[in-house]
Every structure is written in C-alpha cells, then in structure tokens.
Design brief:
Helix content of chain B: 25-40%
Number of helices of chain A: 12
Order of helices and strands of chain A: HHEHEEEEEHHEEEHEHEHHHHH
Shape of chain B: globular
Distance between the termini of chain A: 24 Å
Structural class of chain A: alpha+beta
Distance between the termini of chain B: 21 Å
Number of strands of chain B: 10
Helix content of chain A: 40-55%
Radius of gyration of chain A: 33 Å
Largest sheet of chain B: 6 strands, mixed
Largest interface: A-B, 30 and 36 residues
Order of helices and strands of chain B: EEEHEEHEHHHEHEHEE
Strand order of the largest sheet of chain B: 6-7-8-3-9-10
Oligomer: heterodimer
Number of strands of chain A: 11
C-alpha cells in the first residue's frame, strides 16, 4: 500500500469519528502524562537526595577504628594500618582524618556580612589530608602554617544550606554563599569549652580562615589540615598518632564491596551510616515513584483496552468499506496496516499530548512551589528531572499502548471475508 | 477469457452440515462476450461470481480468468489479480463515504504503483458519463450515478473482465436501463462482461444466458 494513500485513508477514517478518536487519544494522554510526571518527580527528588542531602561519593569508603582495640592488628588506625589499607586491591588513595581532641570555642563579636553579631559557639574540628578537599580550596594553600598563624578551614556545603534555610531566617542573619564565606576569619580559643571539661591548662587563641567549602567538609564542625590537628593534639598532650578515620578512594565503585570485606577482615569498621541513609531515602523515593509509575502504566493499559474496544467497534461498522478495499486489490497486510495506522496516530497524539501535559504540570508545580512553599533546607529549584529519554519514553509508550490495543482489531479486520461482507445491502 | 472446469464450492453450515453451493460447474466465456448468469436466490450465482473475481479462493476445480489460474493463489497474488485483471460491480455500490467520486474511482490505485491515478479516474468517470461530477461525494449522487461511479471504479485499471453482481438490483427501471445501456456500450468496446442477475431486462441485454440451479449449470 502506498504511504500517501495510507495517510489519506487513516485521516479519513479518524475524521469521521472525531469524538471516538479524541476519547481514545485522551485515555493514552492521561496515562502517559501521569507516567512522565511521576517518573520526572521521582528522578528529581532522587537527584536532590543524591546530590544535596546525602552527597555520597560511590567510590569512597569511610574506615573507622573498631570499638574494641585488640592487639597488633586490633582495629586501631595508626600509620601502619593506613599503609595496609592503601595497599588493598582496588584502593586508589587513602586520606587520613584525625579529630582534634582539644576542646575549642569561638567568641565572635563584630561585623558579620553587614550585621553586627555577638555569639559564642563550640567548635569541633577534624584534620584531613589536604588532598582530600584540595579541589574545593579557593584561597591559598590548605596546609598547616604553624603555631600562631591562621588555620585554613574548609566548611561544609550542607551546613551553609541548613544555616541559610533555618538559622539565618530565625535570627535575621544574612544569607551566605560559598563564595562569600571564602576569606572570612573568626577567632578560635583552644582548650576552652562551654560544655566539656578542659585539660586545665591555659587556653591559646588563634584565628581560623575559611579557604573553601566542600561536600567533603565535616557537617557539624570545621575541617582543617591534618598536620594542624596533629600539632594541636600533641601540644595538648592528646593522642596524635592514631587517626579517627580514613577515607579510601576506590578505583571504581565496583571495587567498593571487595574493599569493605578486606577492611572488616582487618578488624576495622566501615562507617556507612550516610550511605545507608542515602540508600534508604533513595529506596523510599524509588518505591513511591515505582508505585505511581505502575498506576500510570495501568492507566495506559486501560487506554489500550479502550482503543481495542473502539477500534473493534469501528472495524465492525466499516466491514463493507474494508471489504471493498479487499475487492479492489488491498492485501490482508494493507488492511492490517490501515487499522494499525489509525491506532498509531491516536497513540502518537496521546503520547505527545500526555508528555506535554506532564512537562507543563511539572513547570507549574515548580512555579507554585517557588512562590508559595516556604524555604526549607535543600529545597530545589525544580522538583523534577526530565532526561532526554523521558519524553521519548512517553511518546514511545503511547505508541506501544495504541499498537497493543489495535493489534487484535487490526488482525480481525485483515481477515474480513470480502465475499461475505459485500454480498449484502449497503452504501 | 474465462475457463471453469469442475468448479465446486461447499460451506459448513452448522447443523445442516456441509452445503454444496457449486457442484462441478464447467463454463467457458470467450473474450468480448456479455454473459448473464441467472438462477433463483441461493442457486450459487454470487458464489460463482466471487470465485471468478478472486474474492473466494476456497473452491475445488480449475478456474482461469484473463490468463490467470486462480486455484492455489496466495493472498498477495489474488489481491493483485483483483486489482489489475478484473473489475467487480456490486448491487449495493459500496462507495467509500468521505471520498469524492474521483477519489472513490481511484481507490484501487492505493494498492498498486500507478502513475497519474487522478487523470485515469477522471477518464473512467467520463467513460461512464459522470465527467461533470468528479468532486461529488457519494451521498450527493443518485442511485444510478452511484452505480456508475462503482462501474468507473471497476474500469479504473482497464480490466479485461467486468464482473457484476445484481448491478441493477437497487435501481429503478429507468436508471437500470441507463446502466444496462452502459454495459452494452462497454461490451461493444470489447470488454468481457459476466453479470449475475435475476432481472429480465439485463438478461435480455446479454449476448448469452446461462442458468444455475442447485449449484449446477443448465
């Protein structure tokens, strides 16, 4: 059958029953719209969880000492253990971390980005190998400058988000950004605390200067160079030999399970709390999205049944017309293609309309959320993620539903016996 | 032009079992003949026509029409035969609503590669005297005009054989006479016509008449 003739006949048949065609196409559009909407929402929320709330590096393994230290390889993290960890298969690099065991506070009294502020906060600090946060350092070198010199500090991206969305509005403080914070300095008094007992000796004052903000920065505290942490611990007679943790960078995420097993065999523990939380949150999003997508798929299935019903009725009504086509030379395949072609047009229209409807609804919800939903930590600019494949999937599923629904009516139409249907009275 | 040997056709009719509609029919129609096939209702006239037109392929015996042996042909081959070798006219016209006269006549071109189908359709319509009603929809035509459009559609591919199933059955006397006159003119131009009918005026117009009774020619 010539394609131009096929197009013309398909158009003719659809135009004769516009209401039926609209009804069939509408069913598909609703199914596809809800499918695309919920998949885009699920992907968008998963992205927020993955990139903002729990920005877990899939190739990073956080090693911490065992709760019970047992002798030679008894779960302590000294340099020897770090060397062994570095030598494990699949480990690309080991980044040491050391908690500063000296209590510290910051009394701030001065200008804070245009607002006068007086506050005191307890400081928790951890030292890390400079390489660990090097990519996020924007000012000077992230190295220990020696006693009395300002300590380079890396802040946590998530802490800024929480500050901006909760603390700052509550206290009428200015909103901050990573760029604004770089260069900001604040006083630190070591061996002082509001809540914990101190070593009893004199406190020493120094300044911390923010040199960058990183996803790898400590969430509830400051991240400083490892050598600074060692120096502070040593000068206050605290342990400066054992590390509080080691971050192992795997060659690839697929190496992580093997590394985890090897780490546990060494009597050490893996701190996968964040990863688990990310996985749990991701799983919750995935389950919800899957349930909604399943519901949408059911709507598509109902739409396919609707098309099957509508086309079956149309084929019965047009038996004589299809019979005359057979009588003037149409092959069975031509009749099959004709009925399927009608369904394809309905599926294409429904798929395109449904996808467009979903994208419009997503844009509308983002707009409403931006205007009407109060700010909260990690509130995204958009709740939706629409990868290139999603509109294609929407249109493709629309076509698939239409083809699925049309298959049997098309087959039945192609098997019409022209001698039987043309023998009676008719047009 | 048409050669039929021992043609039989049976239907499975539920409780009545197998019903033999055609029973060993043998018939030869030379080129240029206008044959009328008569008989009572249920005598097998239409079945014979459907077999000759390639609409019914479940028969036994030998059937050759316009040089094509029809027994055992595939669906594709039979479709091509219907498209090119024969034209079929039905009692009920069977025009496609929504298509104009010229589009209805050109319908066979949808299923075959053919150049300038519109001009051929116009020629066919002019041949049946409807050159001034090219763009009319079926519902805007009289019964006789509709049948002439159907005849033009059957002539579209310039077939060697025209098969007609009660072509005047739905027409009034005057219109039927016009259509019969058209058949006679086409036959005079060399077209072989086989018309199944129970009407005297069409039977009288034919150059030969055969009668079917209980599936057999007499």
């Amino acid at each position: 059958m010539k394609s131009a003739a096929l197009r013309k006949l398909v158009r003719l048949h659809l135009s004769r029953d516009r209401r039926g065609a609209f009804s069939s196409s509408f069913g598909i559009a609703i199914g596809i719209a809800s499918l695309v909407f919920f998949v885009a929402l699920g992907l968008g929320v998963a992205r927020v969880v993955r990139e903002k709330i729990f920005p877990v590096d899939a190739s990073l393994v956080e090693v911490i000492p065992s709760q019970l230290a047992l002798g030679l390889f008894g779960g302590q993290l000294d340099q020897q253990a770090v060397d062994r960890l570095s030598a494990l298969p699949g480990v690309k690099k080991a980044y040491r971390k050391m908690s500063v065991k000296v209590p510290a506070v910051s009394y701030y009294d001065g200008d804070f980005f245009g607002r006068r502020v007086r506050m005191g906060v307890e400081i928790v600090a951890v030292g890390v190998d400079p390489e660990f946060v090097k990519a996020d350092v924007k000012l000077g070198e992230f190295v220990d400058a020696g006693e009395g010199q300002p300590i380079p500090v890396v802040g946590a991206s998530r802490l800024i988000e929480i500050y901006n969305k909760t603390f700052a509005p509550a206290r009428s403080l200015p909103q901050l950004s990573a760029t604004m914070l770089v260069g900001f300095s604040f006083p630190i008094d070591w061996n002082r605390s509001f809540i914990a007992a101190t070593a009893g000796g004199p406190f020493t004052s120094t300044r911390g200067q923010v040199v960058g903000v990183s996803d790898r920065g400590m969430l509830a505290g400051i991240t400083i160079p490892l050598e600074t942490a060692k120096r502070l611990n040593k000068s206050n007679n605290a342990d400066a030999e054992h590390f509080s943790g080691v971050a192992l960078q795997a060659d690839s995420p697929s190496d992580v399970p093997g590394i985890v097993v090897a780490v546990k065999e060494m009597g050490l523990r893996v701190d996968d709390q964040e990863r688990r939380m990310a996985e749990n949150a991701g799983a919750a999003v995935a389950i919800t999205t899957s349930a909604m997508a399943l519901l949408s798929a059911l709507i598509c299935l109902l739409a396919a049944f609707n098309i099957a019903h509508a086309l079956s009725a149309a084929v019965r009504t047009r038996e004589k017309e299809l019979g005359i086509m057979r009588a003037v030379g149409a092959k069975r395949g031509d009749i099959f293609a004709l009925v399927l072609g009608e369904a394809l047009v309905l599926g294409l229209a429904g798929g395109v309309a449904g996808t467009a409807l979903a994208l419009a609804a997503a844009a509308g919800i983002d707009m409403l959320a931006a205007r009407m939903v109060p700010d909260f930590p990690f509130k995204p600019e958009t709740f939706f993620l629409v990868p290139m494949w999603l509109p294609a999937l929407g249109v493709g599923l629309g076509l698939l539903a239409a083809i699925g629904g049309a298959w049997l009516p098309a087959r039945r139409a192609s098997r019409i016996d022209p001698a039987r249907v043309l023998a009676g009275q008719g047009t | 032009m048409i050669r039929v040997e021992g043609l039989s056709r049976s239907y499975d009719d539920g409780a009545r079992g197998k019903v033999r509609v055609l029973d060993g029919v043998t018939l030869e129609v030379p080129a240029g003949q206008f044959l009328a096939v008569t008989g009572r209702s249920g005598s097998g006239k239409s079945t014979l026509l459907h077999v000759l037109g390639g609409l019914d392929s479940e028969f036994s015996g030998k059937v050759e029409v316009a040089g094509t042996a029809l027994q055992g042909l595939s669906d594709a081959a039979l479709s091509r035969f219907r498209n090119e070798a024969v034209g079929i006219v039905f009692q009920s016209f069977h025009l496609v609503p929504g298509l104009s006269s010229v589009e209805n006549v050109a319908l066979p071109s949808a299923f075959a590669a053919l150049e300038a189908p519109s001009s051929r359709a116009k020629e066919a319509l002019e041949r049946v005297g409807l050159g001034d009603k090219l763009t009319r929809a079926p519902e805007q035509l009289s019964g006789g005009e509709r049948q002439r459009v159907a005849i033009a559609r059957a002539l579209f591919h310039q077939p060697k054989v025209l098969l007609c199933d009660e072509p005047t059955g739905n027409l009034d006397a005057q219109t039927a006479d016009e259509v019969i006159a058209l058949f006679k003119r086409l036959n005079g131009e060399g077209l072989t016509i086989v018309a199944v009918t129970h009407e005297d005026r069409l039977r009288n117009a034919a150059s030969r008449v055969v009668s079917l009774a209980d599936g057999r020619l007499s």
